[in-house]
Amino acid sequence: MGDNAVLACPLKPNVTLVTWKISPKVGNYCTLGYRTDTNETGRRSCSDSMNWKFRPDLDPALEIRQVGIAQEGNYTCEVVSGEGNFQNMYHLTVLVPPQVSLYCDEQGSPVCEAATGKPAARVSWVLGSNSPLEEEGHISGTVTVLSRFTACSTNVTSTTCMVFHPAGNWSESIEC
């Protein structure tokens, strides 16, 4: 999320046509094309964030600037050359790291929150807790996960929350 992504497309000898076909989960189908005989590029319904990484005659890679959830979907590069037709297919999935916070609630219990992550984060406690996770899905496709620490013993004064996510892992401690 927010980074640039580059999708490779093989450059073959005697290329006559290169086409990127982009089918996002949300929004319009888009194409980028390059014809070598006329040295022309064309685009249809593509946002300005998608373009050739360099010159398509030297490297037909696609660059997506500041990737967001809206760019998730299928990307296909088709190359037509004297050797035949070639395809590279990609499925782009965007990871959104959660915003992690650890605080004490009104009852003095630790609460660990992994807000607006994609996919949903996994939350656990070092000392263990029998508290069920609360999940809230958002229209953006992100998920907030909340866990309230419920101690098995009343003499627990400090605990550590661990958050696991494909974009990274976090660990924080608190004393309530």
Automatic annotation (TrEMBL):
Entry keyword annotation includes S-adenosyl-L-methionine: no
Membrane keyword on record: yes
List, alphabetically, the InterPro entries matched: CD200R (IPR040012), Ig-like_dom (IPR007110), Ig-like_dom_sf (IPR036179), Ig-like_fold (IPR013783), Ig_V-set (IPR013106)
The record, for SUPFAM superfamilies, names: Immunoglobulin
GO BP field:
regulation of neuroinflammatory response
Location in the cell: Membrane
Molecular function via GO: signaling receptor activity
The protein's superkingdom reads: Eukaryota
Q: Where is the Ig-like domain?
A: 1-93
According to Swiss-Prot or TrEMBL, what is its membrane topology? Single-pass membrane protein
Q: Which Pfam families match?
A: V-set (PF07686)
The protein's matches in Gene3D superfamilies, at most eight in alphabetical order, are given as: Immunoglobulins (2.60.40.10)
Q: Which UniProt keywords apply?
A: Disulfide bond, Glycoprotein, Membrane, Transmembrane, Transmembrane helix
Instruction: Name the GO cellular-component terms.
Output: external side of plasma membrane
Protein family: Belongs to the CD200R family.
- Name assigned to this protein: MOR1B protein
Name the source organism: Furnarius figulus
Recite the lineage of the species. Answer: Eukaryota, Metazoa, Chordata, Craniata, Vertebrata
Tell me the name of the encoding gene. Cd200r1b_0
